Amino acid sequence: MNPLYGKDSAIPEEIKIVFLGDSITDEGRFIAFMDAFFLEHLPKHRITLINLGVSSETASGLSEPEHPFPRPCVHERLAKALRDTNPDWVVLCYGMNDGIYYPFAEERFEAYKQGMLSAAGKIKDAGAKVIMMTPPPFDPQSFSGGSLQPLGQVTYSYAAPFEDYESVLKRYADWILSLEQPVDAVVPIHDAILHEWSRERSADANYKSGDGIHPDFRGHWQIARALIRVLFNISLEQRPDYVDHLESSPLFQTVMLRHRLLSSAWKEHVGHTNPSKADASPLALALAKGEELASEIRKIAIGAKGDPVNKHSIWRGYERIDFMLEGREGLLIFPKKSADGKPWLWRAEFFDAFSYPDMALLEQGWAIAYYGLSNQYGCPGAVEQMNGFQNFITAAYGLAPKTVLFGFSRGGLYACNYAAKYPMQVKLLYLDAPVLDIRSWPGGKGAGTGAEAEWAECLAVYGLTEETSALARVSPIDRVDELADTNIPVVIVAGDADIPVPIGENAAPFAELYRKLGGTVSLIVKPGVGHHPHSLEDPEPILAFIRQHA
After folding, report:
1. Cβ count near 14 (within 10 Å)
2. Are residues 325 and 291 in the same domain?
3. What is the pLDDT of residues 480-505, one digit of tens each?
4. Bridge pairing between strands 14-21 and 89-93
5. DSSP track, 261-300
6. Same structural domain for residues 240 and 323?
7. Which residues contact 153 (CB under 8 A, 6 or more apart)?
8. Which helix (H) or strand (E) holds 33?
9. How far is CA 433 from CA 237, 440, 514, in A?
10. Which of 291, 541, 542, 550 could bridge to 428 as Cys pair (CB 3.0-4.6 Å)?
11. CA 46 to CA 43: how far, in whole Å?
């Protein structure tokens, strides 16, 4: 399937997203996390998030005998919800209740599949895009709502679930991941939350993730993070402070107040069959109050941060600052004493991976910079965002006007395309096992393996199709003449056994052409080495080239 975002991963100026789901969606913390992110970091965009989650609801229409009332089904209200909200995108968040807490059975699985596909079809008919989330996992270690039941019981329920109910949800999640039509995007939260649990339990074996059915704030952040990544192509590594301090954050408390006000009003306006009804304001009144609260949230955000710096810390004994710029994460690490001219190196991708030359230069007085533009493949929009980042940090921190730009793997696309567009701001390029032709990787049109999902993503951000990509001159290998004209020295390290990014389609022909056109280039070939490991454990050849030319 094609990514939702289009050319240059441009974030829509205005968009309306409706969330349909069960009690996890009803609680809505992951939607509120998303709302806080957009209101704080992208305040000029009008991204409307409407939470229509209803506790106990299913897409399958099934209900366990022990449930106190027949479970609501989304199909009972879907037509009115679509008509009244008129969304651009709809996110379906079902699965936890759809197996009704029983062992796996084909008839229940079929009911879930048909319910999800039927809902997707109706959403498409209404003119909106369909996004399906995988179900979150079930956590027996944290279950606190009753007693777990072994295989062979006559009945099960949310209060007495099958002890291996997680295996049921895993099959449901795998099916969602396999879908192509009529789904526009899939959000894989199941394994992301499992990974979070594993990480937490490596530090605390008794870690509780919630109540077993409903994830805690960490799980909700993983859901929000996955949605932001899939829907907007923004990859977030840092967890905002308010996620860990919900009760003491004025910003998030106001976001949550607004969220509950609007969610309850919308749900009662649309209607649902869960007998529990929340107190709700009339929709028009709630919408007006919501606009007032949104303005208040933006004021709190400006007052809270003052400038883009979010956090100061110590990283390996060095001062580090993390910040958000235009909705994306950036960081700077400062040497203990800056070298003359305040030089700095810029990781275009994969911060701190195989960072032998980075650390050596840091010790010698260079600063290290990184800006999170992952999954944009050096497209023109990413290049412009890079320019904004460089202009910001050089002005704010007095760094040298020119940078040494490190392009690792796919970061080669960013580094070279940036240098071609803004040569006066780049002192030197260090490329490591670099992707220099998108048709080699992720396209896989030559000897390399390629990557299907990344290729679809790459085509989307460049605004290309499979056919037009053959003639598009967007890769560094097509722009060697432009780069050679810049007189920017280039040092390349690559293994001659690289399978995904073959040296014969990327580093070698690039270096040969660059040299023929009069450019300064050094190609360091690692015999018998594949795509990994990157760099050189003894980075002296790289450092010597930098000393000579930068």
Report:
1. 9
2. no
3. 999 999 999 999 999 999 999 999 99
4. parallel
5. HHHHHHHHHH----S-------HHHHHHHHHHHHHHHHHH
6. no
7. 160, 162
8. helix 29-41
9. 24, 13, 17
10. 550
11. 7
